[in-house]
Amino acid sequence: MFDKVLKKCLHNSSLKIVRGKSKSSGFTLIEVLVTIIIVGILSAIAAPSWLGFVARQRLNKANDIVLAALREAQREAKKTKLSYSVSFKTDTDGEPQIAVYQGTTPSNWRSLGAEIEVKPKTILLGTNLQHSNDAKDNVNDISYGDDFDATKPQTITFNYLGIMDRKTDGNSSDTDLKVLLAIPKVNNPTEASGVKRCVIVKTLIGGIQTAKDDDCT
Fold it and tell me: What would the pLDDT profile of 148-165 be if each residue is shown by its tens digit?
């Protein structure tokens, strides 16, 4: 009889312990809702910063592609003792394109953002060129995207010495050539924001350097 009572008491005690544990290990509906709200607020705060960081990283990589293309053309010109060019354009879909070639007409256009999975119109491509190897009178006048004039090639050409043949008349013979990449403004995707990257080709010796933001203009 005593054994039965003892077993019953132990059984009831174990039930209470199990039930007590189950209550303390769960979450109330209010706790879950508060957690969801906090996560939502943190995501709303962090998302713009993260998207901006990703956009800048892609811009940096696109600028690296432009730099590599210009250095490739300069290197090939010295190696082959032939003129090599780099041309830039933006197609009708707003996609920046680039070509490195020998001769007068490029046939190997490729998307500037293909290697970094950049969607059209997320990066603006511009130069201060008005003719091949010829900058505008105002060196800070940059033509972006659809502003390019198809009759005036946006081209930089290196001669067999790896430098640029420039015009001897006018003021543009000693002007640096600039190729700019920019993140477009949110409210106007055809206009460049202040986030810029650029490659600058020095006039006389063909030196190439990079810059960003205000140093590009």
Answer: 555 456 899 999 998 887
